[in-house]
RNA sequence: GGUCCCGUAGCUCAACUGGAUAGAGCAUCUGCCUUCUAAGCAGACGGUUUCGCGUUCGAGUCGCGACGGGAUCACCA
């Protein structure tokens, strides 16, 4: 007998439709929805689509279907019809059977092999983070990193083989700006000499470059030079171009400086990544990949996908698919951004055989770019072109609007992490529940809680949507938040510790007992978990996991409020409730793990 | 201007391929800690889903239009 009812119930509906109304529908096409809270039932069948061809009123149709399904005695206990909605009450024995199944080993709930909703496993790559090495990470990067990490975790939980990669933008004119400014105005400063985090030190010189450059332009404009011309003539413009040329020519002194300063940045990033809890299986550096792609340009020319203009530049014409003409190689033969991306995509599909999907976690400001990238590969006849997927997430706005570095409204990643952890510390100390923790334990807890709050806050929002972050109000620790879920976990662990003193054993679980509504709803939420994982993997949306984990925590607290779990007067019921609570805890832990959130034993 | 995305309670967000009386949290107000963690629970208040027309048995969801917001249209990355 199947441990899940979906397939059986769908078959039963299809059979009943055939028998009652001579309608043939495929069982897979039958869909149930969760019954609304105000009606009795577990699942609901919308009968409108079947009533019409049957030439019946929806109510009558619903009643006839209900009667027919009632014959599945072991599955359906009773039903009711409201308008065109057939609400089915799943038999209590079913929930008991499912509970026992999970109680035997809760890990099966998280095992892709036993999840019937998943599509076949694939080899996937997720690219995320992809920072520039000229300034520290900010709030926008935080959303990117948290999303990329979580999406990869969800895809893995859905049974896929996932490679996490990071493509570091470590070269180019913008990198040279920090280098040049440091060289000219840095007086040999280092992270060690200043106590500054490496990425912040380099970012400081990026800002200095910009400032000095503007001063030079302004001076020229005062002398009557036009603005555009002034920008071209500015001494820094000439110097920076020299530096880029020197870098590309392999000038030892320039390369040495580049390595040193990038090293500082990587040390800084490593700290931020560690704090965020994100990691990568493979790093790509643009300094190593920026020359790739030129071969593809040649190939495209041969195939007639690209064409060369008189000045020597190479273009692709995408007007037939509603896009424009785009440059893929400059007149001087050097690469543009998309040339590199063509190269790295090809490289990855070459390196990882059987890679069926390459997911780019990149902001929606690059929607157009990725349309072009994908379309070029289509035109070049790459069979994997459709596997290129741009996970386009919305920008993070501040109450004042978009973050603007020039206006100093950028929310720095390290600052934000520091503040939220500090806030978690204050809230925890105010409650005074962990006074016996040593320093290290306490520090770890504050970190987990602060990051739990931050991660949940960001990941609960649908990736596609832009979101608003208000630094002044910061992040709540109550209500629909990470710490709420962490709290629920810690609360369960606490009950389990108490329960352990009772020395119950599982055989005392009873079947005579009728589950309360709250208990049944917990079992049902566990039952739904595999479906949620499948949905989240399909949609590449951790927010679905976040929502479910929240529902589960909420339902547990409701249950907790009006049930006594550990009661030495009724060992059988205690055993059942402890087991159930334990399963909820494990599911909270697993779900939050997919969001990159740690749950504490105590808080 | 062309193309694309978005508009849901005062605020931040939900609502699976169109389904029932659009749900949570925050904020405001009420109750509940000498019993397993009150970062909790229960309740109240709060909506013409920006507006209009259309398709449908049924529209926050689909189509058209208006209004409002954003992104993008570089031999930048």
Describe this structure in words.
By secondary structure, the protein is an alpha/beta fold. Among the domains are: 85 residues, Gyrase A, domain 2 (2-Layer Sandwich); 182 residues, Isoleucyl-tRNA Synthetase, Domain 1 (Orthogonal Bundle), CATH 1.10.730. It is built from 21 helices and 14 strands. It has a 5-stranded parallel β-sheet with strand order 7-6-5-11-12, sandwiched between helices. Strand 5, helix 5 and strand 6 form a beta-alpha-beta unit. Helix 8 crosses helix 11 and helix 18 crosses helix 20. It is globular. The model has no long low-confidence stretch (mean pLDDT 93). The protein binds one RNA strand of 77 nucleotides through helix 2, helix 15, helix 16, strand 14 and helix 18.
List the helices and strands and how they pair.
Blueprint: H1 6-21, E1 32-34, E2 43-46, H2 48-54, H3 58-70, E3 76-82, E4 85-90, H4 92-104, E5 123-127, H5 139-157, E6 161-168, H6 173-185, H7 191-194, H8 198-222, H9 227-233, H10 235-248, H11 252-276, E7 282-285, H12 286-289, H13 294-303, E8 306-308, E9 314-317, E10 325-329, H14 337-351, E11 355-363, H15 367-379, E12 388-393, E13 396-397, H16 413-431, H17 439-459, E14 467-468, H18 482-500, H19 517-539, H20 542-562, H21 571-594
Parallel strand pairs: 5-6, 5-11, 6-7, 11-12, 13-14
Antiparallel strand pairs: 1-2, 2-4, 3-4, 8-9, 9-10
Helix pairs in contact: 1-3, 2-3, 5-19, 6-8, 6-10, 8-9, 8-11, 13-14, 16-17, 18-20, 18-21, 19-20, 19-21, 20-21
The protein binds one RNA strand of 77 nucleotides through helix 2, helix 15, helix 16, strand 14 and helix 18.
């Amino acid at each position: 007998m199947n441990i899940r009812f979906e397939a059986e119930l769908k078959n039963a509906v299809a059979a009943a439709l055939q028998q009652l109304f001579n309608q043939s529908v495929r069982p897979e096409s039958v869909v149930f929805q969760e019954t609304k809270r105000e009606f009795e039932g577990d699942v609901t069948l919308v009968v409108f689509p079947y009533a019409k061809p049957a030439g019946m009123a929806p109510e009558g149709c619903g009643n006839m279907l209900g009667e027919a399904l009632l014959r599945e005695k072991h599955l359906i206990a009773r039903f009711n019809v409201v308008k065109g909605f057939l609400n089915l009450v799943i038999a209590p024995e079913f929930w008991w059977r499912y509970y026992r199944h999970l109680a035997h080993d809760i890990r099966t709930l998280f095992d892709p092999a036993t999840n019937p909703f998943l599509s076949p496993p694939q080899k996937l790559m997720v690219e995320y983070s992809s920072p520039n090495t000229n300034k520290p990470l900010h709030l926008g990067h935080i959303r990117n990193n948290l999303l990329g990490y979580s999406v990869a975790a969800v895809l893995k939980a859905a049974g896929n083989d996932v490679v996490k990669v990071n493509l570091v933008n470590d070269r180019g004119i913008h990198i040279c700006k920090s280098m040049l400014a440091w060289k000219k105005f840095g007086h040999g400063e280092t992270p060690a000499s200043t106590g500054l985090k490496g990425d912040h030190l380099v970012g400081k010189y990026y800002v200095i470059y910009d400032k000095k450059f503007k001063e030079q332009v302004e001076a020229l404009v005062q002398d009557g030079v036009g603005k555009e011309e002034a920008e071209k003539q500015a001494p820094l413009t000439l110097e920076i171009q020299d530096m880029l040329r020197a870098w590309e020519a392999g000038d030892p002194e320039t390369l040495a400086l580049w390595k040193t300063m990038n090293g500082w940045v990587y040390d800084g990033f490593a700290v931020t990544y560690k704090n965020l809890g994100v990691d990568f299986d493979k790093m790509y550096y643009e300094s190593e990949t920026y020359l790739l792609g030129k071969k593809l340009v040649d190939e495209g020319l041969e195939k007639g996908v690209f064409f060369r203009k008189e000045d020597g530049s190479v273009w692709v014409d995408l007007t037939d698919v509603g896009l424009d003409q785009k440059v893929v190689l400059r007149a001087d033969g050097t690469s543009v951004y998309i040339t590199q991306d063509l190269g790295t995509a090809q490289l990855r599909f070459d390196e990882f055989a059987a890679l069926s999907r390459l997911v780019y976690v990149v902001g929606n400001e690059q929607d157009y770019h990725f349309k072009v990238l994908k379309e070029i590969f289509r035109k070049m006849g790459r069979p994997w072109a459709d596997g290129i997927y741009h996970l386009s997430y919305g920008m993070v706005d501040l109450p004042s609007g978009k973050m603007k570095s020039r206006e100093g409204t950028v929310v720095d990643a390290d600052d934000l992490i520091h503040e939220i952890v500090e806030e978690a510390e204050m809230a925890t100390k105010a409650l005074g529940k962990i006074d016996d923790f040593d320093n290290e334990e306490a520090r770890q807890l504050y970190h987990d809680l602060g990051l739990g709050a931050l991660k949940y806050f960001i990941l609960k929002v649908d990736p596609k949507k832009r979101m608003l972050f208000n630094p002044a109000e910061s992040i709540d620790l109550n209500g629909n938040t990470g710490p709420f879920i962490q709290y629920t976990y810690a609360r369960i662990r606490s009950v389990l510790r108490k329960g352990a003193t009772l020395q119950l054993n599982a055989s005392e679980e009873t079947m005579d007992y009728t589950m309360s509504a709250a208990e049944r709803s917990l079992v049902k939420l566990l039952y739904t978990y595999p479906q949620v994982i499948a949905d989240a993997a399909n949609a590449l949306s951790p927010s679905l996991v976040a929502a479910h984990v929240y529902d589960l925590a909420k339902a547990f607290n409701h249950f907790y409020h009006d049930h006594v779990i550990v009661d030495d007067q009724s060992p059988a019921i205690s055993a059942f409730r402890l087991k159930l609570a334990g399963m909820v805890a494990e599911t909270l832990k697993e779900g939050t793990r997919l969001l990159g959130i740690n749950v504490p034993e105590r808080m």
